[in-house]
Specification:
Layout: H1 3-40, E1 48-55, E2 58-63, E3 68-73, E4 79-83
Antiparallel strand pairs: 1-2, 2-3, 3-4
């Protein structure tokens, strides 16, 4: 294998690695933000452990205690959390 081929393979592997770690950081920030939103709205949750994006600014958040909330921005531009 030529040095040029090895270099391209290394670039591809490192790009994939850094992209995956970037998504993981975004996920951690999203979970933290959803936890804060649910707490500020006075709903019981504790900590959001997973989230599924339905649309832009529309997520289903699953809490550590098993409860689930749909967190979204309504037509008036306010953040709302609905028990699922």
């Amino acid at each position: 294998m030529s040095k040029r081929s090895e270099a391209w393979i290394l670039v591809a592997v490192l790009s994939t690695f850094f992209a995956a770690s970037s998504f993981a950081a975004d996920d951690a920030a999203l979970l933290k933000d959803l936890t804060a939103v649910i707490a500020l709205l006075g709903l019981p949750c504790g900590q959001v452990v997973s989230a599924t994006q339905l649309k832009s600014n529309d997520h289903i958040a699953t809490c550590k205690d098993g409860s689930r909330y749909r967190v979204f921005v309504n037509a008036e531009g306010r953040v709302v959390a609905q028990k699922q």
